[in-house]
């Protein structure tokens, strides 16, 4: 009888552990979609050094289980091109975390701010849909100032004008983001530190280094942890 009871207890314990494992997996395995351009794919740095991957690593260190981020982004994309890229990708699933960073190429090409506002609004609505309607799971990041880089200084353009235009585009995306009650992370002031600290830049003299992307991940981490509660 004692042996029987011990065996029964062991079976019950193993069953509970198995069920707990399944529950933890279903609760803690999260998905992440990153939408953007070269700043999202991490142009000129290893994929592991991009901000979505560094962010995932930081969140996993906090005990969250997150699948490798799905990235819909390409160097040079504007808002309209990101919209087309999303359509082409034809992703149907919902995500627990969605980040959006887009607009530098609109500014670089001298595109209309009115068009940017309209297209950014659509992309923000798309991001919300990808998050299953949960606005707390969407995170917008401001546009860095590429004029603060060696590439910017050698571009022949007026650096002050670039900064002013970047600020104008960011004013638009910030206003639209806040109107939706969505988290906004302003990394632009820190991006301008590259003027005096080139360790913040990749070897191409234009895109952020892993060090700068790490700072973005650090800023995003507590906001995402709060949004997922």
Q: Mind explaining what this structure looks like?
A:
There is one protein chain. 54% of the residues lie in helices and 10% in strands. The chain is of the alpha/beta class and 229 residues long. Helix 3 packs across helix 10 (210-227) and helix 6 (113-130) packs across helix 8. The termini are far apart.
Structural class: alpha/beta
Mean pLDDT: 91
**Beta-strand content:** 5-15%
Low-confidence stretches: 1-27
Helix-residue proportion:
40-55%
Strand adjacency order, main sheet? 4-2-5-6-7
Please identify the oligomeric state. single chain
Largest sheet, if any?
Answer: 5 strands, parallel
* Tally of individual helices: 10
The helix/strand order is HEEHHEEHEHHEHHEHH
Q: What's the overall geometry?
A: globular
Rg estimate, integer Å: 21 Å
Distance between the termini: 47 Å
Number of strands: 7
Features:
229 residues; alpha/beta; five-stranded parallel sheet; two-stranded parallel sheet; 10 helices; 7 strands; disordered N terminus
What topology does this entry show?
Layout lengths: L1 H27 E2 L1 E5 L1 H4 L9 H11 L3 E2 L3 E4 L5 H11 L7 E4 L3 H5 L4 H18 L7 E4 L8 H4 L5 H21 L3 E3 L2 H4 L18 H18 L2
Parallel strand pairs: 1-3, 2-4, 2-5, 5-6, 6-7
Helix pairs in contact: 3-10, 4-6, 6-8
Entry summary:
By secondary structure, the protein is α/β, with parallel strands linked by helices.
């Amino acid at each position: 009888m004692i042996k029987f009871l011990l065996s029964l207890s062991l079976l019950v314990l193993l069953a509970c552990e198995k069920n707990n494992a399944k529950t933890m997996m279903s609760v803690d395995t999260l998905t992440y979609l990153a939408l953007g351009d070269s700043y999202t794919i991490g142009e000129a740095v290893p994929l592991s050094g991009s901000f979505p991957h560094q962010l995932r690593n930081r969140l996993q260190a906090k005990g969250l289980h997150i699948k490798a981020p799905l990235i819909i982004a390409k160097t040079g994309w504007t808002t309209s091109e990101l919209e087309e890229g999303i359509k082409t990708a034809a992703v149907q699933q919902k995500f627990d975390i969605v980040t959006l960073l887009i607009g530098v190429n609109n500014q670089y090409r001298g595109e209309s701010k009115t068009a940017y506002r309209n297209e950014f609004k659509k992309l923000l609505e798309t991001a919300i849909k990808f998050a299953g309607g949960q606005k707390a799971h969407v995170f917008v990041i401001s546009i860095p100032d590429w004029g603060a880089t060696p590439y910017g200084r050698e571009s022949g353009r007026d650096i002050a004008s670039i900064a002013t235009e970047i600020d104008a585009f960011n004013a638009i995306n910030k206003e639209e983001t806040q109107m939706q009650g969505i988290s906004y992370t302003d990394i632009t002031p820190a991006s301008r530190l590259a003027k005096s600290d080139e360790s913040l830049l990749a070897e191409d003299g234009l895109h952020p280094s892993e060090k700068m992307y790490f700072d973005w991940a650090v800023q995003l981490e507590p906001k995402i942890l709060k949004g997922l509660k």
